[in-house]
Structure formats: structure tokens, C-alpha cells
Specification:
The chain is of the alpha+beta class. It has 13 helices and six strands. The protein has a four-stranded antiparallel beta sheet. A two-stranded antiparallel sheet has the order 2-3.
């Protein structure tokens, strides 16, 4: 037996849905919804006006791998003699397989970020609201947190992007000044080259010191010859490092001051805010109509009386459950006699 429409929809909502009713309600409140959306968009625009303009400058660089830095292996040695395995392993000979990843990790490291920030005095820039530019001192005894400043620098000011298609590296700087963004991007490239060169030269200097110490201890003439060859190779590698100005980064396109700000995009944010508030207005209008229908029908709702078949079925089940077995007296007496 099929249920009636009242049984399927006891609140009577489905039967009362009329698209024209909702369209009419939206049409009546169109000015109100538009005004609310406009006011919301203006409020969001006002909030964005309180935000600083950010300018992004980018430098495009290529990575020069240290594939042939020179050495003392038979194919790379600068003299006519071939040397042993020990001499070959002591000199930087080839690029590691993860050289690019190691270089990027060094570029993003806390150590280099801290050096770059200190040399360019970026901590007062980061906490400019707490810095007195005239007195060149912190306001109200403010003490900047070192690692917090480095984290802000790495996340909001400097970003590094590697293009897998071209193999080029994009170094972005975002600041409140177009000139400062371009200046920092170009300084960053040159400073990282110097930083890498300093690390490599320091490693070479330590090796040279060790070889010179061993030269004074070892008396064997053949071993002394090998040490001299190693020192010669170390000098060649050091000379190449001083001669390479674009190592490991070669500047393809220097950063230039941007003409337009990169953020905040106030018009885009305002337009999206207007659409969002308008959508909320439409949702509220339709939702209010549905809620009103639900509450109205809840007040009017009365459960339908049971049918004759349901009454008979319920009476039979109650009667069967109330009956006891006919031999219940005999079973009780038998149980008593047994005890």
C-alpha cells in the first residue's frame, strides 16, 4: 500500500516549494543584499588600505656546477706525473650527485640567512614598528628575537624558486620598497657566491696546512714529491676559485625595481568580498524562507490517527503477550514438590 503525500512529507515542505517564491523574495531584497555586499566590500577595502604595499623584485641566475675544479687525478692533473689514489681523493675532483640540493640547502640555511640579515641590517626593517629611525634604537626596550626574525625573513621577505624546465634559479625579494627589493636580490647573489667561495677556500686552507705539517714530518723523498704535487694542485684549485666571479651562481638577469606593487591586490580582494557577501545574502534569504516554512508546519503538525488495521494488529499482539500457558499451575506444583 502506497503512502500518501502527507505521510511521505509530514511537515508539508516539499509540496510547498515554489521557485518563483524564492526568486520573488530575492528580487524584493535585491537592493538590501546589494547594499550589504557593497558595504562589506568597502569595509574589506578599508582594511587592505591599512596594509603596507609590497614590491617584489626577482633575479634570474644559472647554477654553475663545480664539475672540473682541477685536481691531481691522471686526467685532470696539471703536471706530467700521474699520482696514486691517496693523492686523487684528497683533492676536490667532481661534483656530488646532489650538488644542486646541497647548494639550495646552504642558500636557505639559517647560518647564511643570519649573515645576510646582519650585513644588510634587516632586523630593524623587520621590526620597523618597534624601531626608532632617528634615535637608531629600539622603542620601549624592545628586544628582537633572533630566530623569529630569521623565520620572518625566510618566509615573507626572501623566496627561492627553481625552474625545472629551464634549470634556472629565481630569487625573489619582497619588501615595502621597490628599490630595496631589487637591491637585496642582487646583493644576495653576489654575497652567496662570496660565501661559497669562502667555505671552499677555508677547506683548501685546512688541507694545505695539513700537507705542510706532514711535509715537515715525512722524510721519504717519494712521499715528499707526492705532497708537493698535492700542494701544487691545491694552489691550482685556489687560483681557479679566485678567478671565477660567477661561481656557483651566474647572474643571467639582475633584479630591477618593479613598477607596480605585488600585494595587496585591493581591487581583486574587494571584488571577491563583494561576491562573497552577496552569496551570503542570497543564502540567508533562501534559508529564512525555508526556516519559516519548517516552524510554521511544525506548529500545525498533528500525527495522523492510526488506521483500523494498525489498531487490530496492536490489540492482537498485546492480547497474545498477556496470555499465560494453560499448564502453568501444574508446572509450579511439580517444581514445589521437587524441592
Amino acid at each position: 500500500m502506497e503512502k500518501s503525500s502527507t505521510e511521505n512529507d509530514p511537515l508539508g515542505i516539499d509540496s510547498q516549494i515554489d521557485l518563483l517564491e524564492y526568486v520573488g523574495a530575492l528580487f524584493q531584497k535585491k537592493y538590501k543584499i546589494g547594499a550589504i555586499a557593497l558595504l562589506g566590500a568597502v569595509a574589506v577595502l578599508g582594511m587592505t588600505l591599512l596594509m603596507d604595499n609590497i614590491y617584489t623584485a626577482s633575479a634570474v641566475v644559472a647554477i654553475n656546477s663545480n664539475e672540473k675544479p682541477g685536481g691531481v687525478s691522471p686526467k685532470d692533473f696539471r703536471t706530467t706525473d700521474a699520482i696514486g689514489l691517496l693523492e686523487h681523493d684528497l683533492i676536490i675532483d667532481s661534483t656530488p650527485a646532489n650538488e644542486r640540493e646541497r647548494m639550495l640547502a646552504r642558500m636557505r640555511s639559517v647560518r647564511f640567512s643570519n649573515i645576510f640579515m646582519e650585513e644588510n641590517n634587516l632586523v630593524p626593517y623587520i621590526y620597523h614598528k618597534h624601531w626608532d629611525a632617528e634615535k637608531k634604537a629600539w622603542k620601549e626596550n624592545f628586544k628582537p628575537e633572533k630566530y623569529e626574525a630569521i623565520d620572518i625573513f625566510q618566509k615573507t621577505i626572501r623566496s627561492i624558486e627553481f625552474d625545472e624546465k629551464t634549470g634556472l634559479l629565481l630569487i625573489h625579494f619582497k619588501t615595502r620598497s621597490a628599490d630595496l627589493s631589487a637591491k637585496l636580490a642582487n646583493i644576495f647573489v653576489n654575497r652567496f657566491n662570496d660565501y661559497t667561495r669562502e667555505l671552499t677556500l677555508s677547506e683548501i686552507a685546512q688541507r694545505r696546512k695539513y700537507l705542510e705539517e706532514q711535509l715537515l714530518i715525512i722524510k721519504n723523498v717519494e712521499l715528499q714529491k707526492s705532497i708537493y704535487r698535492l700542494l701544487e694542485a691545491q694552489l691550482a684549485a685556489e687560483t681557479l676559485l679566485y678567478a671565477k666571479k660567477d661561481f656557483p651562481l651566474e647572474e643571467i638577469q639582475p633584479a630591477v625595481p618593479p613598477m607596480f606593487k605585488s600585494s595587496p591586490k585591493r581591487l581583486t580582494i574587494s571584488a571577491l568580498s563583494f561576491i562573497g557577501f552577496a552569496f551570503l545574502g542570497v543564502t540567508y534569504t533562501i534559508g529564512s524562507i525555508l526556516a519559516r516554512k519548517i516552524f510554521t508546519n511544525l506548529r500545525k503538525y498533528q500525527p495522523a490517527p492510526p488506521t483500523q488495521a494498525e489498531i487490530s494488529e496492536k490489540t492482537d499482539s498485546e492480547f497474545q503477550s498477556s496470555q499465560l500457558p494453560d499448564n502453568w499451575v501444574n508446572e509450579a506444583n511439580n517444581e514445589k514438590n521437587t524441592q
